[in-house]
Every structure is written in structure tokens, then in C-alpha cells.
Amino acid sequence: MLRQAMLGRARYTIPTKRFLSMQAPRQPSIGRFTGKPDHATGKYTVSFIEGDGIGPEISRSVKDIFQAASVPITWETCDVSPILVDGLTTIPDEAVKSINKNLVGLKGPLATPIGKGHRSLNLTLRKTFNLFANVRPAKSVRGFKTTYDNVDLVLIRENTEGEYSGIEHVVTPGVVQSIKLITRDASERVIRYAFEYAKAIGRPKVIVVHKSTIQRLSDGLFVNVAKELQKEKNFQNIELDTELIDNTVLNVVMNPSKYSDAVFVCPNLYGDILSDLNSGLSAGSLGLTPSANIGDKISIFEAVHGSAPDIAGQNKANPTALLLSSVMMLHHMGLNEYGDKIENAVLKTIAASSKNRTGDLGGTATTTSFTEAVIDNL
Ligand SMILES: NC(=O)C1=CN([C@@H]2O[C@H](COP(=O)(O)OP(=O)(O)OC[C@H]3O[C@@H](n4cnc5c(N)ncnc54)[C@H](O)[C@@H]3O)[C@@H](O)[C@H]2O)C=CC1
Ligand SMILES: O=C(O)CCC(=O)C(=O)O
């Protein structure tokens, strides 16, 4: 159900549906998929990184459901075991070639050793392929009761720098420094993407979440770039708000519906934390929230959650977040019919009965039984 609203000079389409659904959203003009299916088979090839911990279990679920739904995709499995070159973390050439060739990937969670060993492979992938925007929608799920039943939040996180730049050093024993790098170029490309995304999904407002009262230069630059961009003719009909992160966190917890007409955009770490909060509020679990890492040409889709080592190998993981990430991927590729079909089946399965739900949603289902129920509902 859509309603039209006249806002200023522009006509926007505002979705009234507040429950989880990413059905065939219009794609922003930046980062569009340009891959082509194979001539002989009519199928697209997608690079697949299964990931660590629960990764192989939830990846199996996605593969089984895609096969049952006859999605015209061939998976190309990629090994991203870390390789250290001159102290820098890289991934094997074959994986880089596969992703550069296919222009699209789906990945399970990758674990990062704490305080030693290789650098985060998640960050390495984002940097290697210049995936500058991380889109994280968080919506209530019909039939599954949480504190609020009308959460519909969209957050876009800067994905390549900020606190995740990896520039750290020991100044002197007992004194360390981590650099939060913010550049005009990276700020501009993610904020421009956020404006385009808001236009594409029919939201009239972009909110920059920051702390420029304290991080005056870095967050200050991020906010100023947003103000400059908003003056462009293309974006003048999108309202721009700026909010301090502590204020946003309080407001989201008190009344998430306040932000149902907005797209948040923020520097890397704020986006990481705020999006987990959004997941908790919308779903009561990390097991439901999908995401897209978008670059100019290449995009990689992944669940927001990590490798969940506490439940790995126990057939307890909820594959929904990876499944919904794969739905975002299908919409990105223009395979809307398949995306809608899988999304409907997943949501129907969760709504039907608590018996269908995995433990994180208070149910008793296993990864396998949930997958079978989704296949029955296709
Ligand atoms: N994008 C990625 O690949 C990410 C990777 N990580 C990595 O994951 C590892 C573990 O990180 P944590 O902080 O423990 O976060 P986590 O997201 O793996 O787990 C947090 C809690 O959520 C639960 N959970 C997560 N996903 C679930 C699912 N699909 N079904 C049911 N329950 C689920 C876990 O059991 C755990 O109790 C670390 O090595 C971290 O570096 C963390 C975040 C993102
Ligand atoms: O790579 C990691 O260990 C964590 C990355 C992360 O926090 C994220 O994907 O949001």
C-alpha cells in the first residue's frame, strides 16, 4: 500500500507499510548493478563467502532456499582466508578476481581475532572493493511481538574510514592513539548516496547523526559536507536535519516511529552501534537484520550480525538476516520476483507460529527446520 504525498515541489511516494518488507524498492541511481547473466544458461554468477562460526549453517539455508525457489543464480564460492603482505591483511587473488568479475557477492559473518593476528576481513573486503555505503534497514516483523510494533528505520553507515581506518600506534608504553580519519571525498560519496537512497525509497528527510560538538573537525566536516550537498538542485526537496548521536539514541529508544520518514547517515562507528540498537528495537534479535555494502560497481550483501561463536555448529542459528540480505541482493540485481517470493515465505514462516521460530526469537526451531518451513511456504 502506497500513498502519494506532495512535499514542496516534488512528488514522493511514502510507504505506509511499517512491517518488514523490502519488496522491490526502487534502487538509487548510484551503485546500480550492471552484471549480465551467462548467455548459455541465463544465470547470474554470484560470489559467495560462507563465513565463520554460524556462517556455513546459515549459508546452507540460503542455498537450499534459492534452489527450491529456482533462482537463476550460480554460486561461486570464495575463500577469503587472510594473507599478510608486508604486515597488511589481504585476501586471496582468486576471491578478488571472482568479486571483480561478478560485481556482486553474498557473505556470511567473518570473525576477527581480538587484539592480535589479521585485521578484520570485513573491513578488508569493504576497503578492497571500495564499498563506501552500508545500508541497514530495521523493520518490525508482522506477527512477532516486540516492545514496539511499528519500527521502520533506515540507516546508512560510512563504511571505509572513521574509527575503522585502522591507523593506530603506541605513542609510549601506556599511551596509545587510534586515528578517526574523516575525508571530504568519503563523506561526500556516502552522504550523496543517502540523499539518493531517500529519494529512491520515498523518504523526505535525511538526518546526519554526529557528535560535532566534541569531534569538531572530523564530524564537523561530515556535517558541513551534508549541508553543502543539500543545496544541490537535485536534493533541495529532501529535508536535511542534523542530530547529536546521544540525542538520537534516546529518541530511537523512546519513540522509534519518530524516524519512519527519515534516512539516517552517519560516520562509521556511530552507524555500527546505532544499527544494532535499531535491530534490537525492531526485532529483539540480531538474527533478522540484513545489510548491503554498496560501491560504485560492486556490492556485497551480508547480515548485520557476527559469527555468533556461542551457538556455532549447534543448528540453532537464525538464517533470516542472511536470507533478507540475499533478498536485498536480488532486488539490487533486478530479480524482484524471486526476492519477493523468498521474502514473503520467510515472513510468513516467522508469523505463522512460534514453533517455526529459532531460539533467538523465543522459539524451538532449528536452522534446518526453519529452512524446511520456508521452503514449504515458497
Ligand atoms: N559483518 C561481520 O561479519 C561481523 C563479524 N563480527 C565478528 O563476529 C564475532 C562475534 O561477535 P559478537 O560480538 O559475539 O556478535 P554476534 O553478532 O556474533 O553475536 C551477538 C549475539 O547475537 C546472537 N546472534 C547473532 N547472530 C545470530 C543469529 N543469526 N541467530 C541467532 N542468534 C544470533 C549470538 O548468539 C550472540 O548471543 C567476532 O569475531 C566479530 O569480530 C561481528 C559483527 C559483524
Ligand atoms: O569485522 C568485525 O570484526 C566487525 C565488523 C563490524 O562491526 C560490522 O560489520 O559491523
UniProtKB/TrEMBL annotation:
Tell me where on the tree of life, at the top rank, the source sits.
Answer: Eukaryota
Q: Which reaction does it catalyse?
A: D-threo-isocitrate + NAD(+) = 2-oxoglutarate + CO2 + NADH
Q: Name one GO molecular function term.
A: isocitrate dehydrogenase (NAD+) activity
EC nos:
1.1.1.41
List each copy of the Isopropylmalate dehydrogenase-like domain by range.
45-374
The keyword Glycosyltransferase belongs to this UniProt entry's keyword annotation: no
In terms of PROSITE patterns, this protein maps to: IDH_IMDH
Keywords (A to Z) from UniProt: Magnesium, Metal-binding, NAD, Oxidoreductase, Transit peptide
Among Gene3D superfamilies, the record links this protein to: Isopropylmalate Dehydrogenase
| One of the protein's GO biological processes | isocitrate metabolic process
Uppermost EC category: oxidoreductase
GO annotations of cellular component type: isocitrate dehydrogenase complex (NAD+); mitochondrion
One Pfam entry name: Iso_dh
Subunit relationships: Octamer of two non-identical subunits IDH1 and IDH2.
Annotated family: Belongs to the isocitrate and isopropylmalate dehydrogenases family.
- Record-linked PANTHER family: DECARBOXYLATING DEHYDROGENASES-ISOCITRATE, ISOPROPYLMALATE, TARTRATE (PTHR11835), ISOCITRATE DEHYDROGENASE [NAD] SUBUNIT ALPHA, MITOCHONDRIAL (PTHR11835:SF34)
> What name does UniProt use for this protein?
Isocitrate dehydrogenase [NAD] subunit 2, mitochondrial
* Originating organism: Kazachstania africana (strain ATCC 22294 / BCRC 22015 / CBS 2517 / CECT 1963 / NBRC 1671 / NRRL Y-8276) (Yeast)
